[in-house]
Every structure is written in C-alpha cells, then in structure tokens.
Amino acid sequence: MKLFKTAVLALALGNLFSCAVTPHFDPTKRDGSAFISAEQAAERSARISNVRYELDFDLTGAESFNAISKVSFELADTEGFLTLDLNQAQVKSFSINGNKLYPKYNGSYFEISGKLLNKGENSIEVQFSRKHSTNGEGLHRFVDPVDGKVYLYSHFEPAAAQQMFALFDQPDLKASYQLTVTAPADWQVVSATREQQIEDQGERRRWHFPATAKLSPYNFSMHAGPYRVWEDSRGPYPMRLFARQSVAAQVNPEDWFSYTSAGLKFFDDYFGIAYPFGKYDQLLVPDFLYGAMENAGAITFAEGHFLSSSAMSSDQKQSLAGVIMHEMAHQWFGDLVTMKWWNGLWLNESFASFMGTLALAESTEFKQAWQSFYAKGKQRAYEQDSLVTTHPIEVPVATTANAFDNIDAITYQKGASVLKQLRHLLGEETFRRGVSQYLQTYAWQNATLDDFIASLGQAAGRDLSQWTRDWLYSAGVNNLKTELVCESGKISFFSLTQSAPADLPTLREQKVQVALFQANRRELERTQLQQVTYKGERTRVPALEGLPCPDLVYPNYGDWGFVKVVLDDRSFATAKQALGKVEDPMLRAMLWQSLWDSVNDGQLGLDQYIATALVNAPAEQDEQLSAQIISSLLRSADYLQASVNDGHYSRNALLALSQMSLRKTMESKGQHDLQRSWFEAWIELAYGKDASEHLRQLLEGRASILGLTLDQDLRWAIIARLNRLDAPDSAALIQDELTRDPSDAGQKAAISAEAQRPEAAIKRRWLQKIHLGSEPFPKLRPAMGALYPPEQQLLSQASADERLSQLTEMDKRGPVFMRSYVQLIPTQCSREGIDQLSHVLDSKTNLSSGLRRALLNTRQQEERCLMIRRGLPQG
C-alpha cells in the first residue's frame, strides 16, 4: 500500500492510535468487517451532519479503477473516534483538512481520532485504486463475450457503496454527490443527475455532473460503458434507455417509454408531488443480482428478466411494466423519503409493491394486475407466513450484514397486501391523502414507520396503534371461515369466524367482501355481495340472514383481505364441481387456489387435484389463470418426480400432464401468448421417450406446431430438458447451440443445461467449482440452480454429506453467495432426509441466521412433500 507522509505524521500517529477511553464511540467495537451495527450507525449519525461528497473516477475498462473521494461534513464534537468506510482499496493518499497522514485502515474502514478533526466543518480526501467487483455489488465489471466490450454499473444496497468510494455508508446520513468521471471516448456515463459538461480529451472524455439533492448512499449510482442509448421526450421529464450493444436488438424501447410515461403521470397525480429527479434513465445490465434497483434517476434492470429473443408476450410485458412501476414508486417512497435504518426496508419494498400494482391496474392495459398479484406474489406470502421461520413484518436489524435476512415474501407481498387491505379499511382517498402528507412532510429526509402510520392516522382521524401492533409487529396468517345455519332454504344465522395458530394467536381487524353464489346448470351465479369489517374470533353478519341458502360462500371476494379462506364443506364441494361455470376470473383463480391449498394442507390428495386439473385446465382461456394453473402443475410434477419410485401412479400422472400440456399447446385457436405459456409448460413437463423425440424433432425442424416459432429462449429450454432427460446425443446439442448463440445468456443457459445432466462426473465437476469458487459468481449461479433436479435423488445423495459439511465454510462467503448456494441443500422427500437436516440444525450452531432459516424451511418443505407423497396411490 503506497502511502504519503508529511511533517504532521508523528502527531497524526500519536493521535490516531490513542487508547484513551472516551464516552463516545469506540471503533474497536466494530468487528473489522465492512458491516456496522444499528447502534454504531446511530452513534455516527448523531455526530455527523451536512455531508457532501466530491467523487472523481478514472475508468479505463481494466480490472481496476482509480478514484478520489472527498468527504465534507460537520462534526458535533471531537471526542473519541470516527470511522469512514472504504472496502478493499489500495490507498495512495489520505488527508484530513488538507493535512496528509498515514491512516489506520483495516481494509474495511478508516479509524480516525477525533483529535485530528475540527468541531464543525471537516474534509477528508482519499486517493485510491480498487478492483472492480464481479459479484453484482459495488462497481461491477462485465466483459461482453460477443464483442469484448466492457460495461460497468453500480449497485449499493444495502451497504456496498463502500466498494466504490469512501463514505459513511448508512441510509440516515443523506448527502449530496458531485461526480466527475474520465472514461473512454465511446462510453456513456450515467448517474443520478444529467451531465452538465463533457470535455473531449481525444481518446477519452471527462464527464462533469452537478451535485445531487440529498440522497442516502444506496440510492446514488454511477454506470459507464459503450451502452446503446434510446431517448424519448413524450412526457414532462426526459427519458432514456440504455442496453449493451450486443443485445440492443432484443430491446423494444416503445414498451419501456410507453409504460414509463404512463407511470410518471400516474404517480405525479397520486402523490401530488412532481417527480423529484428531473430526468428518468433506465439501464438493462448483465449479471444483476435482483430484478431491478431504484437508484435515483438511474434505475437498473436485470437483463435476463427483460430481454426476449422474440416479441414479448402479454405476460412478459406485464412483468416489465410492473417492475417499472415498482421502481418508479421508490423514487418518491424510498429515494425522496428514506428509511432511517434497515428495519424500515420492508415498508420501502411493500409500499413499492403495492403502489406498483395499483399503477399497473390503473394506468396501463393490465387491468387484471391484482389477479396476477394474488396468484403470484400473494401466494408466496401466504406460504412464507405459514412456515416455522415466519416473522413479523417489522423486525429489528442488528447490522448491515442482516439487512436482507428478512427480505422475502413477507417483506414484499405480505406487506403490500397489508397496505392494500388498510386502504380498503380507511378508504381509498383517505389513504392517498395520508401518503401524500407523509411524502410532503419528510421530503429529502429520513423517516420511520411511526411517521408513516401517524400520517395515515391523521388523514383518517383514527388511532392506528392497535392495527400496527396486530399487523406489523405480530407474525402469522389467520384463517377465515363462514359459519351459517340454513332453515327451510333460508340463512337463519351467518357469521365470519377468524382463527389463528396456537403459537401465533393474534386475531386482526380487516374489511372484506362476502359473496354468496347459487349453482345452476349453466353458471355459478352471484346472488349477494356484502362488505363486512370483522375482528375478533366471530363477527355476526345479520345483513345476510334471511337470504336463500347458497351453494357457495366466498368470504374474501375480490381479495381485499390478507387471510387464508377455508371453504365450508358445501362450498368446497361446489368449487370442485363448478370451476368451469365460474365466469369471474378472479373468483376462479381463488377457487383454484383453495383447491391447491387443500393439497398443501393435506386435506385433498394430489391425485384428486391432478384429476381436477386434467378435466378443467384444457378449457381455461384466461392467460393469468392459466399461468396460475401451470405453476401448480409444475409443482405437482416436482412432487411426482420426487415420488417416482412409489409405483405406477407417479409415472402415469407425469405422462398425463405432459400429454395435456402438449394438447393445450396445439389447440391454441390463435391465442399466441396462451399457446406459448402451455408450450413452455410442456417443455418442463415433457416425460418419456415419445416426448423427448418430439422435442428433438421440433428443435431440428423435422416437426412444427402451427402458430409457434422457436426463438432462442425456447431452443435453450428444449436443450436443457433433453439433457435433463438424458435423451440420446443431447450433450452434443449444448456445444452446437453455443456456436449458434455465444452470448452471455447463451453461456449461462449452456451451464444450466449441462448441470442438469444425470451424470455423476458432471455433478462432481460443477460442485468442485462451486466449493472452490474457481468460476466467477455469475457463472456459478445457473449451475447451483440446476444441479440437482428432484428426480435425480441418487446423484444428489452421492454428494449430500459433502454439501452439508461445506455449509459452514460456504457461509463465510456472505449472503449474496448463500442466497444461491442454499439451492444445494439436499432434499429427498423422505424421513431420512428430514432427519439429516435435523442433525445439521442441531450440530451446526454457528451458521448465519439466513442459512439457518433456509435449512428450517427446507426441512418443513420436506415434511410437506413426504405427507403428499404418502397420500399418492401406490398402484
């Protein structure tokens, strides 16, 4: 490490390494890692204010970059120590208030004696170099395998800005950022503000950006590279879209700009506050860890989620529009007003999920967005909330290492569902006024959950403290059931009965719609709809008494509430028999879900569910509902494949599901998107020699399906399935297709296809690469997700002990790596597998909380699989 010394060095060293005990923060309490605790962050933010950053980067595309960070701030006192974060840098120069000195730096942060600082204004300047990240955090570097071009993008959430520059890396130390970047002449540079000047320096250009408004560190960003740029000015704010040159042909900018402009208008109107960042840039980037990130004014999106080798389907467009809206909502709720600490991350994400779906339903063609939310997101929340690892929505976060421990379906979808039902409880306009008031009051500041709830309570004129305790500080999901008595064909008594698990006994208040239906020969006719606010164990509904006795009651019609509906016996029987008679697609979706929930709860055999699906699924024409049914059938196939040795039923059922999905594909009747959905399902359900041969014929052009064109994505899906089935000569297809498609997406698809092959040598080779880290993380991720399909249990068990023994060592690589590695936790749908996981949980007591939770969830899912397996016919 090259460091500079000056005449003040001796004084600096004496002060810097002082051991004097002070009443202020002692940096030795930090553990030497890049993480900081909530207590330490609060201590630091109490002393520091008015933070400004001046950042200067020299980018060449090489593996490392050079930079200068100047940090200006006001300090309340000069007692004790102060820490400044900078991760794994080679420090070249360090100065405080113009005085160069030799810093105490441990590779994660600088420890600075208060005696070197002024009470009031200070500045610290660090000149350094650092390797680019390759794991999706910090300043990530990607080399395009197609043309060799280098692309950079930043990702800082929760606390990875320190991998790019020196700063106080915590959300409640908002700051302005003034950025200067020198980069190759053919590069674009994008940040939170639009550049004000670009200097031409021949083969290089120097970009100057004006200072930003106050942002939390994780909301700031910088992206650079020879990106293709599209521009649009149809709305009140200039919009740009960026993507790599080699994938530009897969981008339809019209979709992006259309949904973005619609969203900006919607949110401007809804919040009553103009979009706060002046320009709206969106970038498609490779190797991204998540779906997207809400960097202020410069949002990043994962390429793999939003690029398509053919025209996007309606479902893909809805997904794109939904994520655009989600990240856009964050520009107000998250960027303009930001949480103080990471315990508030749930509110940030829940609100964006809720508002994103609302914007999708009210400002785009996807009016059925709440049905999609119900079928996809909300069901994940119900499942997560039913696991042994469930947790309250609002939980403490000890350190930045734990920021993402509770980022799951409870954080996103349950939180969004709770906000949705609160909107119904308070009234739509009341809720909107409360949100607008909150954003106006705390603009450019940090705020807490109490601040948000107080704004809503003030708008509603009611105390929400009990609601907050019940919904946000208590875990678990309630069941809702109707209790009715019929006499002489009329309802004589009707109530809603709420229940809760014994270990999570909270009963909650919410507003729902209760619908009554009569079945006739042609349809299931709705005869009554009643709004009910219920709380406690039983709420009587006298408004429904005296009405004709219904064939089916659904007590959460329209999905207002967050509650699991348990159908009464008569309603359940009607639901099974009358699925095809239900005209309302949302109700149909909810009845299908009730049947699937009954499988997971052990009340309905998987064989009965599959029989119902084989009869009813082929007639379903709604795309959203078809996607929901397909999802349950794919999960059914996993159960069947895990049970394939139990007898003929599993094999016969797999063949039946494969044949049904192929038949549905070929009977498309011109519905292209529906046809593609079922074809993709057939690829994943294809089973047996005949299906393998048909897939091979389609791939080679010896067969075709009317209305269907095989694009590159479908070709890779077929190749992966053929390799998983170990079809003849399927291994050679991988290399042949790589010649056709050498792109980054093609390389990752090839890895996934190879990893799925049922060959012990391949499993060993990829497992060794994963354990040694001998490949870049973006190449290991697809392998970890594909290595052990459920039917390859013998191959999985051959390395199960090794994978379990490596858990402690792998856990040291951190949460980003472990979120992928947990897919390698062994499963075998057996009592032996459950006992194996129990032994690990009992014996390995030093695992991270995230890994321990993954093990507990896997064990519970194994218990469910075993329950379902035991209920299958054996003949």
From TrEMBL:
Molecular-function annotations in GO: alanyl aminopeptidase activity; metalloaminopeptidase activity; peptide binding; zinc ion binding
GO process annotations (BP): peptide catabolic process; proteolysis
Domain Aminopeptidase N-like N-terminal positions: 52-218
Keywords per UniProt: Aminopeptidase, Hydrolase, Metal-binding, Metalloprotease, Protease, Signal, Zinc
Domain Peptidase M1 membrane alanine aminopeptidase: 261-471
Catalytically driven reaction(s): Release of an N-terminal amino acid, Xaa-|-Yaa- from a peptide, amide or arylamide. Xaa is preferably Ala, but may be most amino acids including Pro (slow action). When a terminal hydrophobic residue is followed by a prolyl residue, the two may be released as an intact Xaa-Pro dipeptide
Listed SUPFAM superfamilies: Leukotriene A4 hydrolase N-terminal domain, Metalloproteases ('zincins'), catalytic domain
Protein name in UniProt: Aminopeptidase N
